[in-house]
Every structure is written in C-alpha cells, then in structure tokens.
Design brief:
Helix content is about 30%, strand content about 20%. The protein is of the alpha/beta class. The chain has a domain of about 80 residues: Immunoglobulin-like, CATH 2.60.40. β14 and β15 form a beta hairpin.
C-alpha cells in the first residue's frame, strides 16, 4: 500500500502527525496504512480530487431519518419512498442527520458510531436510500454520549477509553474559553476513582473527546473509513471548531484543529478522492471560511452568514448589508465551494452576523423573532453574562406577520429567500421542513423543553400527503413553487457551483448578481426586490449583462418575459427574477 502513494503525499501526512504527536509520527503513519488496508478502500493509491466533483444538479436535502413516519415501516424506508414519489431526481444528495443510537440532541449525542438506531431501521434501509441518492453522513467528532460504551469504560477505568476524555480540576481558570452555550463547561461524574470533572462544550450528556491522545484520532479515522465503505459521498465534520483544547487559549480554531482537518482531507484524497469534506463552524464569517485553508482543508464550508443576512434584508427592505457581504466573498478554486442554506436542524446562528449589521438592527431582528413565536438560545460570555447565540424558529415563520395566518407578504418573502439561496454560487442545501413551509412547532418545544424542537417537527405520512395535496393550504403552494425552483436550478449550467458570481450594486432595496456557467455559454441575472413597494429597474450599465443582451428577456421563475414599462423592469414587492435571454 505504501508503494502506491506519492512520496510527497506520504511526507505531508507524516509532517501533520509529527506536528500533532511528535516522535510517534512514523509509527502512527504505519498504523494508518494498516487501517486503510483493512477497509480495502483506496487500493489504487493517491490521485488528485476530481474538479468535476459537482455540477448544477447538486442539491442536498437535509432530513432526520424519521422525518416521515408510517405505521409498521422503518422510518428510513418511509423517507426513501416519500422522496422518490414527491421529489424523484430533483435532489442528488440526502443528508441523513445522525441516524446512530443516541441519548440526546436528536442524534448528536452518539452512543455507537457504527450502528443504525433500531428505531429508524438498519443499514439495509440506508443502503436502499443510496440506490437513488448520494448520502451525507455526520462525523460527530467533538463529543460522544455520556451513555456510550467509551464513556462507561472511562468511568470504570478501562483502557484505552480511560484516556479518551478531558479531566479538569474545577478550580482551573477557563475564562479564555469561547462558549457556544450558557451551560457549565465542566460536568461532574462519578468514576471508579471518585468524582471527576469532564469537559462538556455543549451539554452534560455530550462529553468532549481528547484529541491530544492519538488513540482518539485513530478511532475517528477508523469511523471515517467505515462511513466511506458504507457509501458516504459527503462527510460533515460536526462542531469541528472546538476540537482541540489547550488551557489558557480560546479552545476554538486552534492550529491543531486545522491540522486535523488537513489530515482528514489528505486521507480522503488518498483513499476516496470523490468523497467531500464539509466543516460545520457556526462562527463569524472570516473565522468560518478559514476552514478552506490553502485549498487543503474542507472542500465546502457552510455559508453561515447567508441565512440571517437574508432574513434581515427581506424583513427590513434593505439589501445593502447582503450586497456588501456577497460582494466580499473570496474567489474559490475549482475544488472549493460554499454550502448554501437558509435552514437546518439547528436554529439560525447569529454569531455569523458579527460586524455585518448594527446593534440596533440586531436587536430589532431578535424582537421580531420573539413577536412571531420564535425563541432565543444564548451563549455564556467571558464576563459571565449571556447573549443571543441562535434564533429558534422555522425559516418560513421567520417571515411571518403574526402567529395565526399566512399572508401573501409572508409567502413572497420566504420564496424569494429560497430563490436567492438556490441561485448563489455553491451547492444549495434544503431543510426538509422548508420544502412546504412548516410552521413553528411550539407545542413540541414546550414538551421537550428544547428550543430547537421548534424547527424539528416530524410528520406522519398520511398527514403530510394531505397537507401537500390540499389546494387550500399554504403548504401545497410552497411545495409546488419549491419544486419549480429546484427543476429550473438543475437544468441551467449558469448555476454550476464553479460558475462565476458577480454581485451588482443597484440600490438599497435591490439585490442583484450574475451567474455565468464555467464555459461562458449560459448567463442568468438574479434580481430581487426587498422592499414593500413595486420598483422599476432601468436596464443600464449597472446591469451590464442585461443591458447588452440585445435579445428579449425571459424570467425563468415565471417562465415568461418580465413585465416592463418604458423599457424598465417592474418587480412587485419581494419578487425574485432569474433573467436570461
């Protein structure tokens, strides 16, 4: 196996291992290749990642394994049937949120990384989904369940797991640590050796792993290879930013954490170059995109600033903040792209708004969310105070006027937010409940005591079919509009993730950008009116591709020429156009 790998690649891996673990690097390298050989993946050796790893047909659906339920049928099977019947080939990849046995956080407190939760089905159902769709798996890398066998062995002082976790004296000064929650950073547990305090970044049930111990890293590499062998096309590194801990530092984005991401990328390029690495880092924008590295870390990073900026713009009618941010996005290589989304299983992170909107605008956004039935989750600051960390609300209801009815303005705002997200450079990811405009699940949140349950409602198959087939319900209108957007997106080369994106500044109430296919043959101008009033848009040199088109225009969303008066485009309030010739 070693002979089939380039010496440059081999040296790079050993250098990373040496940085992390010193003189043990060479022995660890040999161990790594023995592990790879055991799985039988990558036996042809290293080859560069394909630049054609994605195209305009790449659309990801985010869903829990039991998002759709039917009596006496494994939920994963029900989900597969629903997607095939309702969406067919409009999506390419399904992100099955953690489908492993878990003790909390709807799957993100994993008890066993290699098994399927029996309540969802078996690996047979996962394999069946893979017959129709590519799959994304979560590598929940930062922490493990308190109920896992690993932590139970730690409690009982059994090797090797007795060294898998961080034991910290509660008197240690941890004030420098960046906190994503308002919960205590250390949690007490009774062990065979007495009471101990372990590091718990997210909750007392989610025990952080100690990656300073190479046994932990190699356990995770083994799991990564297992997921590849089970057919994962995208690996999502959950909460990766908090991976490495050094007392006296913020314990976020440490150099060692970035080296681990680079090492995982090296391994993928060696054994499975078609598998993509996605980092989940819900942090301010510049920190977030640092996980591209120098084209040697993630293939994709979440576009975390997009959802709250879109919300702010469409709620206030002011597109300026979004325009300036979108214009500042860095150029990417052919092996990098953004993972665009507006909603997910989590709430809407607000740290990515840092430095992008004013404190007054932020306070108004928080007030709006609370007014329309949303909830606010907080984080603990260094001074002991708490501040908003996450907005817990469905993305559909984020645009509501009130909690009781769905207005036309509500619908228009939401659909424009989705059209913008689908059109921007990158791979779009659609949360299952956004497909049909799910409303806040306030009752569920009250029952679980968890704010995030507001946006995690699960559905009986009969109830969901009834909602989608009833022409009197907004769910059907949203769903039909969404299917149309997905269809158009996947048929236009201008929406290729590597296609050019040029943002145009045409006024405070308008958001505009051009998309151009990599070969230059297909061009689309995306234009949205963020305001409450109709606007006239002159086709002048601020929109050069339309101004110089020299041919009639077509709005791909409405499937007919756009309305024009005296040669100027007319956009009604909150309307989005995808314009081409």
């Amino acid at each position: 196996m070693l002979k089939s790998v380039s010496q440059e690649h081999l040296q790079r891996i050993e250098t990373r291992l040496h940085f992390l673990y010193g003189d043990r690097a060479h022995a660890l390298l040999n161990r790594l290749f023995m592990m790879i050989g055991r799985y039988g993946v990558g036996m042809n050796g290293y080859r560069p990642a394909a630049s054609a790893a994605w195209d305009e047909k790449d659309i990801v659906l985010i869903a829990y394994g039991d998002m759709v339920r039917q009596a006496e049928e494994p939920p994963l099977r029900t989900l597969g049937f629903f997607l095939k019947q309702r969406l067919d080939d409009l999506i390419r990849t399904v992100h099955i949120l953690p489908f492993f046995p878990s003790s909390s956080d709807d799957g993100f407190s994993v008890k066993d990384y290699r098994e399927v939760d029996p309540a969802l089905g078996t690996w047979k159902e996962v394999d069946s989904l893979r017959q129709n769709y590519s799959l994304m798996f979560d590598l929940v890398i930062n922490h493990v369940s308190r109920q896992s066998a690993w932590f139970k062995d730690y409690v009982n002082d059994i090797a090797p797991y007795r060294h898998f976790f961080h034991e910290i004296d509660p008197g240690t000064d941890l004030s420098a640590v960046v906190r994503p929650r308002s919960l205590p950073l250390l949690s007490e547990t009774q062990t065979r050796a007495g009471a101990r305090h372990v590091w718990t970044t997210f909750s007392p049930d989610q025990i952080d792993l100690n990656f300073a111990n190479p046994e932990v890293l190699f356990e995770m590499i083994d799991i990564l290879l297992w997921y590849i062998a089970r057919g994962a096309r995208i690996i999502r590194l959950d909460a990766i930013a908090y991976l490495w801990k050094i007392i006296g530092t913020p314990c976020i984005h440490l150099t060692q954490t970035h080296e681990v991401v680079k090492l995982l990328r090296d391994i993928l390029e060696m054994v499975a170059p078609d598998v993509l690495l996605l980092t989940e880092t819900n942090v301010p924008h510049q920190e977030n995109i640092s996980y591209f590295g120098h084209d040697d870390e993630a293939h994709m990073v979440y576009q975390f600033s997009l959802p709250p900026l879109l919300a702010h713009g469409l709620l206030t009618g002011y597109a300026g903040h979004l325009t300036r941010w979108a214009a500042s996005l860095p150029p990417l290589t052919d092996n990098q792209t953004f993972f665009n989304f507006t909603a997910s299983h989590d709430g809407l992170g607000v740290r990515p708004l840092q430095g992008l909107i004013s404190a007054t605008d932020f306070e108004q956004l928080i007030a709006h969310v609370q007014r329309v039935g949303g909830r606010i989750s907080t984080k603990r600051n260094a001074d002991g105070s708490d501040s908003p960390y996450e907005l817990n609300i469905t993305y559909f209801d984020l645009f509501a006027d009130d909690t009781h009815r769905v207005s036309e303005r509500h619908m228009a705002r939401f659909l424009s937010s989705q059209a913008i997200m689908l059109a921007m450079r990158g791979i779009p990811a659609v949360y299952f409940n956004s497909l049909f405009g799910a409303r806040n699940n306030a009752r569920g949140a009250d029952e679980t005591g968890q704010n995030r349950t507001v946006n995690r409602e699960k559905w009986g198959r009969k109830r969901l079919d009834s909602m989608l087939d009833d022409p009197g319900r907004h769910h059907r209108r949203v769903f039909q509009a969404y299917l149309h957007l997905l269809h158009v997106r996947r048929t236009r080369a201008a929406f290729h993730p590597n296609g050019e994106q040029q943002v145009r500044d045409i006024g405070d109430h308008l958001f505009a950008f051009d998309r151009v296919s990599p070969d230059g043959t297909d061009t689309i101008t995306c234009l949205t009116n963020f305001s409450e009033h109709p606007v006239q848009v002159p086709l002048d040199n601020r929109l050069p591709r339309l101004h110089n088109a020299g041919a009639p225009l077509l709005d791909l969303i409405q499937d007919h020429p756009p309305k024009r008066v005296n040669g100027e485009l007319i956009l009604i309030p909150h309307q989005t156009m995808w314009l081409t010739t």
